[in-house]
Amino acid sequence: MDRGLATRALCLLLCASALDAVLAQMRYSVPEELEHGAFVGNIAEDLGLDVTKLSARRFRLVSGARRPYLEVNLENGILFVNEKIDREELCEQSPTCLLHLQVVIESPLELYRVEVEVLDVNDNSPAFPWSDFNLEIAESAAPGSRFPLESAQDPDAGSNSLRSYLLGANDHFALDTQTRNDGSKFAELVLEVPLDRENRKAHEMVLTALDGGSPERSGTAKITVTVLDANDNVPAFDRAVYRVTLVENAPRGTLVLKLNATDRDEGTNGEVSYSFSGHAPLKVRELFNVDSYTGEIRVKGVVDHEKAAVFELYVQAKDKGPSAVPVHSKVLVDVLDVNDNAPEVILTSVSTPVQEDAPPGTVIAVVSVMDRDAGDNGNVDCEVSGSVPFQLHSSFRNYYTLVTGQFLDRETVSEYNITLTARDSGSPSLSTRKTVLVQVSDVNDNPPRFAQPSYTVYVTENNAPGASICSVTAVDPDSNQNAYLSYSILDGQIQGMPVSTYVSINSDSGNIYALRSFDYEQLRNFQVRVHAQDAGFPPLGSNVTVNVFILDQNDNTPVIVSPSPRNGTAAVETVSRSADAGHLVAKITAADADAGQNSRLSYQLLQATDPGLFSVALYTGEIRVIRRFSDKDAARQRLVVLVKDNGQPPLTATVSVLLSVVDGVPESLSDFGDLALSPRSPSNLALYLIVSLSTVSLIFLLAIIALAAVKCYKDGDHGVSALGAACCGLEPDPPAEVLKKSNLNHLHVSSGAKVPTGCVESHAASALSQAYCYKVCLSPESAKSDFMFLKPCSPATPRNNADGGTWSARGRAQPANNGATTPSELKQPNTDMPLTKNQTSSLKSYNSFKMDGTLMRKALHTDPENFVTPAAGQYWTWGNHTRGSSTRTWTPCYTPTHQHTIQQPQPQQQQKHSGTHPNHHAQPDYQHNVYIPGTPSAHCTLRPCHRSSDLDVHNSFSTFGKKKRFISSYDPRDDMSTPEIINNDLYLDRRSRFLFFVLWGATWRAALSVTRYSIPEEMERGSAVANLAADLGLDVTGLAQREVKLDVFHSKKYLDVNKKTGELYIAEKIDREYLCPIKNAICYLKLDVVIKNPLRIFNIELEITDINDNAPHFRMDRIELDVSESAAPGERFSLPNAVDPDVGSNTVKTYRLSESEHFGIDIHAGSDGTKYVDLVLKKALDREAQAAHRLILTAIDGGAPTRSGTASIVVRVLDTNDNPPRFDRQLYSVDMSENSAIGTLVTKLNATDADEGPNADVAYSFTLYTSEKTQQMFDLNSNTGEITVKGTLDFEDMKIYEMHIEAKDNGPIPLTGQCRVTVLVTDMNDNYPEITVKSLKNTLKENVPVGTVIALVGISDRDTDDNGKVRLSMNRHMPFRLINSSDLHYELIVSEPLDRETVHEYEVNLVVTDSGTPPLSDNETITVHLLDVNDNAPTFPQSFYTIQVKENNAPGDLLSSLTAFDPDLHENQYLVYFIVEKEIANTSMSMLFSVNPENGNLYALKAFDYEIEKEFLFHIEARDSGVPPLCGNVTVHVVILDQNDNTPVIVSPWRAHGSVVEEKIPRSTDKGTLVAKVIAIDTDSFQNSRITYQFLQNTDATLFSLDQYNGEIRTTRMFSYRDARHQRLVVIAKDNGDPALSATVTIKLSTVETALKSYSDLIEEPLEYDIFSDLNLYLVIGLGSVSFLLLITILVTIVLKCQKPKPSKGAPPCRNSVISERNSTIADSTLVSNDAYWYSLFLAETRKGKLVVRQPVPKGSRYFVSSIPRSAGVTDTSDSAASTLQASTTTSSSSS
Questions:
Q1: Sign of torsion, CA 1448 1449 1452 1457?
Q2: CB atoms < 10 A from the CB of 1085, how many?
Q3: Three-state DSSP class for 310?
């Protein structure tokens, strides 16, 4: 052990010494692009290595490059090129390109560093980024301007890189080559000769880049210089003055002229825009528009020749370039006159409204016409358009009068729009239409008219009091007060009560309200007469009749008429038990006070003791027997019949009927109900039974005879004649009134004089679709026994009632029910109205009705405004289309001092029904409050008037927002004279008006002259103009009486006439400029003087002369001009002229400008005399010296005194780009840390430009002096000048960056400024240390010795100083450690023994950390895999296994799987299993068990038997396949489990060959006696051997018992005579296994008291008792008696059926039936069996009080054994239907 450690230590020392002797760095050089295999050097010879041992020492190269560029030949040690080297790809632009290699040699470990320098060759030509360069240079660029060009790129380095540039020959440009700080070169294009775009627009040159290699390489690019235009040309018009003609009123958009000005420049400098100059007046700008783009002058406003004949348009053209100078031109537009003035219609006087009774010829209005045109265009004709009852009378000089042509009717036309048409004689002719609105005032000449001649209203009974039942509507074609209607109800009587107690009406709306709830059964219909009266003077009125029909509602419950209950109990009826199916038992008769469908009754059976026994006819109420009675049916049947009408919802009533089933036996047999079968005295029982049957039969016979005698006695009292008269007599038909009052109002009954059969035709919508004839026989007992037999009769056509009870909409001659088409109608014979399904108080309305009887809904279409739908309780109203209505005027309530009589006309028909009315109003003695649903207030008080002369209507519910108070003036002294209407302006003096208009029309023919005056404007109010009366020759004293009227044709009344002096004076100050806004020489004011009595009209023309009352003013108080500072002296700028509303000499005369050294003015006149002024530049401008100039322009007129106006002129000097940008510093120096984040701000540049606007907008950019690498590292914001970090700054890559920045303005000829920015990069600890694994053994055996070297690791860091100092460590404890072999190399060795089973591999994490701040680290993971050594023996999970195996297993069954585990791998882990041999009872374990050698599965080779072998114990061994092999074993204990595989064996009682064991026992054995004992044994164990006993079969289960555990059979009771003589017991013995096994034994027990027949003889024999033979004689007697009684009962029933006797009241219901029918016997339990168990059933059921009957199955050997309950008697019918067995009686035959 010590020797091994010494050896390891020596080995480590040798390795350390070898690493310390690392050779110095070796260096080779090789040119790039060498082919594969090129020689580099003999590295083995240079390192002094033995070439023959290179392979054995695992000589290899480790390179940091991505590709294996170099390789070593291990046979000769030569270093050669393995892959072609591209220096540009490997080192890019680095001056020196080195390839670093490391040579690693093992045994011993040696490490060498090798550097291979890759030399550059000139294999790349210079290349430009683009083959074509486009430069844009303004033609105004000055010589010497420099333009940088894109640099060419050459990937080669040193002398092979780019050296110079060459430029092709040209006349304007030269080339200047510059060198950057990094040695790269770029070129600049220098302008030597100025450019002129108009001579040459583009220049093309070739730029060539040359490198310094040998041979020399070059690259070319094409340069295209585009000369940009400068705005050095002004636009020029093709003419200085344009003259065109234009028709007046030309439409908007009409082209007047298209200007044409051209500019030699291009682009925006050559684009010309047109506009009006400053000289263009505002009115010209309003009338014309100049398109700035096309130069088209178009009409913008309305050009009127009457306002101006010539227009002067001053236009200018200006290009869009900088410092644009406008040029001017003038356009003269001559306006051609056309007939463009339409005539004017002036209404001088209008008299409206006109009463509808005005006579023809009444003057309505005075009309005058005029036309501004002259000649034929001024001649005007006027006429009335359309067909109207008015005429236009012509007068001289365009004056007309409008008069009525015929009588007017306001109700036909309430107003007229009269159109007056004035047309001139021009070509084309123009016309004007004037509409005069003439309203016709109303006169009360129309009485109110109702919408219908009469109203028919249907109201459902039980309505709510106060509900609206209908609404009557009257229409009065008059208007206002004449059309306001008031409704009232005329007095009348309804069933002796005033009509006002039944209904009320809303006086405003006509809504009729029900004051009480109607009952259809008391009141079917009534009439109400409604009176409508207007409020005119005199008032007019009319009447209408409202027929109200009450509709039936289902509000009466059906009433049971028969059978009637007695003493509050259910009705009792009797029925014979022998009644056949269909026999009438009883008849239910009910009545309903309702009508129609509501009275249609239906019957149904609600409850019944036996629902299958009786049925009730749906419509007749007849109760009939469905089937024949059986002996099981109860003697008392209780029926509950439900009677239901057909209303919605239906109402019902119930009646209970108790039916007693009688069969002729008078006495009750209830005493036998509890009689039970006694087995101990059978002979006495049979005797008593026979005696009882005979007694009952005799009593029953006597009772039937007595009933027959009583019935015959009662029938004889009535006589034959009465019976015949009731059934077959010929009686007269009942009167129609009786039929009407009956409830069968839905039937039409036709009766004949000699036919006793009434044929009833049903027309109701019911299930009976055809007519039926009912034959009715009435007898004194018909209340209880009448019955109707239905038989069909021939169908007949439905007929109406004789009295016209069927209502028709069109008339009584048409059939009913011919108009109902709505889907929910129920057709009824007496009414044709549609009824909804729910029969509510309001009928459902439909969108359309196709019925003859139309609803009031038509009112909605004819007068939708007056149609009112009730808010609650909607009632439909029918109309009968009758013509004619009574007229009754409405009279207000007066309080006269004496009584008088007002006669009211009444129609003749109305007088017949209404009778005589009293002459005075009786004071009502009641006050009724009505609730109106849906109104805000629910009370309306009708208060009669007594002493007041007003009719007060205190109405608190809504009346459409109107609360009227009717007041009529009444004077008692006037008696019956017409009252006088006071303050009514509608009534005028017709005679005076007519005379006035006639005189006025007569004066129109007087000649009129035109009088002219002249006055200055602005005269004060009241100033006299002239004496108009004297000039017109009028009498001053009569002016006031003649109504002088002055009509001025203007919106203001400037003048008026003094009626006392006749002077025309100023009423309002006149402003000539307002009156005549157009500057015409003459301004006139026209007016007419109208004088009445007689009518005369004079025309006056007043000339208004101008005074200097307005000062000149400019359209804008502030005039702003933009003038470029580059404008040349002498340029002119148009200014807007001043405006003076005055005319002539009072208008503008001259202009004056304030003092200025730069500007002056030039004044010139237009063709119309208007003065215009231009601003002239005298001295050049400088914006930087003065940006704006403020001047004052004064306009002076020529009036006396003179007036003036001023305007401020602001001249803004526009900037030109004449100042370059300037930086605040020429050199910027910034320190930046390396690895600064992208976006970090480096510095912000600041360059300013003295110019403004776009000329001062500075844009920053890199110049070509900035290298591309610098531009990739930094980003320059062109707008803000911020320099930010764009790439990653690396101190190790570059320490200083230099940028050249250019600032350029945005002027048309941009100017630039430059500066330089230097960025110094400071170092940071930004390089992570690196780990390089030089040599690695990643696979080791787990028994490798401690100290074995696993890997050689090298570390490095690009940083320097402390940032470059690194150390290597492991981050967690492992069986390895690091040894520092040299400065930057470490050895990884094994420090502890290894175990693969514990850890099969190691992840050695090496961490290298530098000493920077903060320190940086890197890690490298080395994975070491351990190889397995066979050092672990197999082990089982358990040292002892117990395996349980069920017996009777199949040979080859898998018992268990014994798996051992070996932590080794591969062959060391592969295990083999075998059984260690051991003999038990001379039997080897391998003969009983086997084990699978591969997986350890243990199998059984035989089937085990628990009863023979119970357990086994042996060993199993597992052995691996390692060298040497290792093994392990385990003990196996196999336990055999018992199974239930043995059947119990019956030991006692013993039997031979499975035969039946026979035992005999005495019949007198007591209860609990041991009869036999069954003993069985089982060879199994535990639960499988536990045996239980039970009966499998037993003749009588109640006779014997079997103990479950000991098998003892004992008697449970004593034997009886019913018990069979032979008892067969089958006992089963069953063990407790799963599944259980069993054995059976059959024991036949025979009782030994009397000799009996064998069991097999009883199989086919009927049921017998021991005493059966002794009863034969008694049974024959009993059967004979019962048969006799049955015959007698049938005879009596037939007699009763024919005689229909009254059923006996005292006969008790029969409890037992003497009739037994075999096929009707119903049993509560039936057993079908083919064995002998029926005997034991018989004994068991008889003990329970039941009878047992056995019947053979037809065509079979089996029997029906039925047990029938023996009831104690028949119970009364309960609410729920009882079962058949509960209601059945005990039959006599069953007891036998």
A1: negative
A2: 20
A3: strand
